[in-house]
């Protein structure tokens, strides 16, 4: 019934939204905005804009949290006019989602060099004063945002970065043109379509049945250990990527992989983190750290990991100058993997 109606109503607009569930209606609406430039321009009239400056989101502080303010199209036009900017700059905005009531959300970077604006970059401090907020590096702000805002701003930053880095066709060298939603760019001379890309990354919590293996890179904050992570090579399956990364980084062989969950991760570019548990092959517990990739790796007992998860102020230097062992914060998928292992260290659900 609703399928028939969906097709019948498609002639007028895309779909007959009122016959669909809230979730389906929302996904169909976003699909329409990505496909139809006019519909997307219309959605900007009533939409909300999140602002960035050189990929740093505009945030306002509220007690211990950061909140990203939203701006209407009218407010944005006034702001651009006040700073002597052409409203054409709004064409650089990208669609990042919508509310259940179909208020579309967009992100716009006011600092990146714009292809559709004469002036390159707006003055950041003046902007911050005017907007009563600060443009804060996402890596610093991420853990002080709620889950919903963190995910939205990560998506926004990834998409803004991708557009900034794909302004020219790699075949013809000509400028590419984005569609209004920003879901693709097209080269006008040869019609090649470029879509935003993510790099698949496997992140694996290796266990020997009673202990789990955690490692740190020298770039991590002092004392923090995490699960093993690595980019998938071209042509690899996820299973092969997990086995190769574990072998490369700590010299062990694993099997019995169990998928846990996935997460979009905006750093360093845009990755799809695919998280899983794995068990070392029998008799293979001696770690051989690849020092080109890692600073250290070690087996940790269940009690040690439980204690680290309980620490409220993890980043703490001890009297002997060393840092307490601590784990990635809740928002990181590594945290979820570690918590799952704490709750089920022997992974009884894994196939034999
Ligand atoms: N969300 C989380 O919980 C979490 C936890 C740990 C790591 N991570 C992320 O996982 C990612 C990968 O981990 P890693 O650094 O150990 O990877 P890695 O072990 O594959 O080593 C990184 C190296 O891989 C190479 N590489 C191959 N393909 C690449 C690509 N598409 N982009 C960038 N480099 C590529 C580069 O030489 C780079 O120096 C990191 O970006 C890190 O931010 C996320
Ligand atoms: Mg790695």
Give a quick set of tags describing it.
alpha+beta; Nucleoside Triphosphate Pyrophosphohydrolase; 3 domains; six-stranded mixed sheet; 10 helices; globular; disordered C terminus; manganese
What does this structure look like?
By secondary structure, the chain is of the alpha+beta class. It has three domains: 1-35, no CATH class; 46-194, Nucleoside Triphosphate Pyrophosphohydrolase, CATH 3.90.79; 199-343, Alpha-Beta Complex (Nucleoside Triphosphate Pyrophosphohydrolase), CATH 3.90.79. Helices cover 30% and strands 23% of the residues. It has helices at 2-9, 22-35, 37-46, 73-82, 124-131, 138-141, 147-165, 238-250, 302-310, 333-343; strands at residues 48-53, 56-62, 65-67, 94-98, 104-109, 134-135, 177-178, 185-186, 193-194, 199-207, 212-216, 228-231, 254-265, 271-280, 296-300. Strands 1, 2, 3, 4, 5 and 6 form a six-stranded mixed sheet that branches. Strand 8 (185-186) and strand 9 (193-194) form a beta hairpin. Helix 2 packs across helix 3 (37-46). The radius of gyration is 23 Å and the shape is globular. Mean pLDDT is 90; it is low at 1-8 and 348-352. The protein binds nicotinamide-adenine-dinucleotide and magnesium ion.
